[in-house]
TrEMBL record, chains A, B:
Protein name from the UniProt record: Methylmalonyl Co-A mutase-associated GTPase MeaB
MF annotations from Gene Ontology: hydrolase activity
SUPFAM superfamilies assigned to the protein according to its UniProt record, in alphabetical order: P-loop containing nucleoside triphosphate hydrolases (SSF52540)
Organism: Phaeospirillum tilakii
Gene3D superfamilies: 1.10.287.130, 1.20.5.170, P-loop containing nucleotide triphosphate hydrolases (3.40.50.300)
Gene for this chain: meaB
UniProt KW keywords: Hydrolase
Organism placement in taxonomy: Bacteria, Pseudomonadati, Pseudomonadota, Alphaproteobacteria, Rhodospirillales
Alphabetical list of CDD domains matching this protein: MMAA-like
Domain of life: Bacteria
Family affiliation: Belongs to the SIMIBI class G3E GTPase family. ArgK/MeaB subfamily.
Length: 330, 330
């Protein structure tokens, strides 16, 4: 299929008017790696930027088996019931999806995906986490311009995707399950300290008591180990995504975080710092990609990397040789 | 004073022969920002690289008031008593020192600094953490080539210096004090999860019981919250740097970590990954510095940074404009 010629201004108008087709096309455009698409995507984003920033940006990660998809569906349905408009995005650098489809994750959240007021988009594909994260960040902006006021960004927990997601949201939720002290098997070092709230899911049936106990234990451990940061004490909540109990507490916590961080200026500071870091990351990644794409570098890199890994060559010396080669001084 | 012409090969021989003066000159050379010194430093490191890697690299951070300097002195004296040769380096990006001096921190560790088998070097000065960390990493290599077999790298806890230190050592120690649950006031988010061992200092006199209690609480919180990584369960120890009790347990823990991580291959993997990341960080920092030094960039940057901070311009668009300018396409 040959797509219609891209008119970023018309596409932006469609996005802002709430046209689903325009929204899907806009995100597909942003996910494209074609140079002409990239230029159109830039123009589209320029049109949309003044209309972004209005959503609560919520990141969600969890241990395997925590019931993250069910939790996100329950949470999204609760947002809808409160009159909100949720969009669900994902960062999964391992995803083999080849772009363009809006199927995929939808099957995991059937009820939410059937509601025309909600929007669910699986992870863009891409070989690098940086590329996937960039497109998800931009998709988040497009969703905001389209009027979605709660953006949920889900991480699959591969590589450094949790950090990438925490770096693009206002609030980061960690979903755990009640268990015997081994709840964090499968979660990587450093993730707990990214969390702005911890949620113990599956607090239903036989597990209800265990969930309450786990929540108490986590709360006390977090109180002891988590450094007080921006005046926000990380709460530990229980819920059951299955029976949809406790979901309102999570939602109220999101609102309370938004209010307190908004009033203190912490939210604006966090977003400004994220945008600044994002810009410099993009600069850095673009420059590094140009360096890697350089034929002279590609020929020399394996030898130098091996020498550095073996401890035969100082990393600084290898770096300077490569940069000199890249800048045509080698 | 005009220094003698630099002969990297002769200097490397002096370092390896254990000459204090050569060691101090070598590190001063590495810390220099002069271009000709940098070239000589590269040549020096090339000479020394085959003789590096033999030390236990131990990073130490702590909450303010934890008695870190006293702890490092007691630890260093214990290493000496065991027949080891300790070197103490520091990463302090806020240090206003203007290079070359080997005074400074020595006054904090009088007994250790008087011992000719030990070596203490304050933090290099530098405006960026990256620059300070690079020089400390290279100083660590020089110390290893000079025969020091325990390198202690201290962080002052400014900016991201803990992460920088954790990224250059084999084992990272977090020094805390017994207290009323607010022990982590002053320590930043994410630091606890960097620790390979937690040490509760000041376990003496009136505080002995509180220290034991704090250690138990930390151990249980860490067990609950810390993700199992490389098969190493983070131990929590008590000691008194003042009365020098419990220091041998810390030393035995360092040896045990070294043995277990060495046997499993985790140590070699950690060092190879660190060297690889260090090389790419240096490449990235060098390229970003060239970009910042570009006159066209310097003229345009403030406007773009402000627009990004205000949410008027997408970070990606700003990045692409700056890179295009830098590469002469703007």
């Amino acid at each position: 299929m040959t797509p219609a010629p891209l008119d970023p201004v018309a596409l932006a108008q469609g996005v802002r008017a709430g046209q689903r087709r325009a929204l899907a096309r806009a995100i597909t455009l942003i996910e494209s790696t074609r140079a002409d698409h990239r230029a159109a995507a830039e123009a589209l984003l320029s049109e949309l930027m003044p209309h972004t920033g209005g959503a609560a940006r919520v990141g969600i990660t969890g241990v395997p088996g925590a019931g993250k998809s069910t939790f996100i569906e329950s949470f999204g349905l609760h947002v809808l019931a409160q009159g909100g408009r949720p969009a669900v995005l994902a960062v999964d650098p391992s995803s083999p999806r080849t772009g363009g489809s809006i199927l995929g994750d939808k099957t995991r959240m059937e009820e939410l995906s059937r509601d025309p007021r909600a929007f669910i988009r699986p992870s863009p594909s891409g070989c690098t986490l940086g590329g996937v994260a960039r497109r998800t960040r931009e998709a988040m902006l497009v969703c905001e311009a389209a009027g979605f006021d709660v953006i949920v960004v889900e991480t699959v927990g591969v590589g450094q995707s949790e950090t990438a997601v925490a770096d693009m949201v206002d609030m980061f939720l960690l979903v755990l399950v009640p268990g015997g002290g081994d709840e964090l098997q499968g979660i990587k070092k450093g993730i707990v300290e990214l969390a702005d709230a911890v949620i113990v899911n599956k607090a239903d049936g036989d597990l209800a008591a265990a969930a309450a106990r786990a929540a108490r234990d986590y709360a006390s451990a977090l109180h002891l180990l988590a450094a007080p940061g921006d005046g926000w004490q990380v709460p530990v909540l229980t819920c059951s995504a299955l029976t949809r109990t406790g979901i309102d507490s999570v939602w109220q916590t999101v609102l309370r975080h938004r209010d307190s961080q908004g009033a203190s200026g912490a939210l604006a500071a966090r977003r400004a710092a994220q945008a600044h870091a994002w810009m410099w990351n993009e600069i850095s990644e673009t420059l590094l990609q140009s360096l890697r794409d350089d034929g002279r570098i590609a020929a020399r890199l394996p030898t130098l990397e091996q020498a550095v890994a073996d401890g035969r060559l100082a990393p600084g010396a290898a770096a300077r040789e490569l940069v000199a080669l890249f800048r045509g001084e080698g």
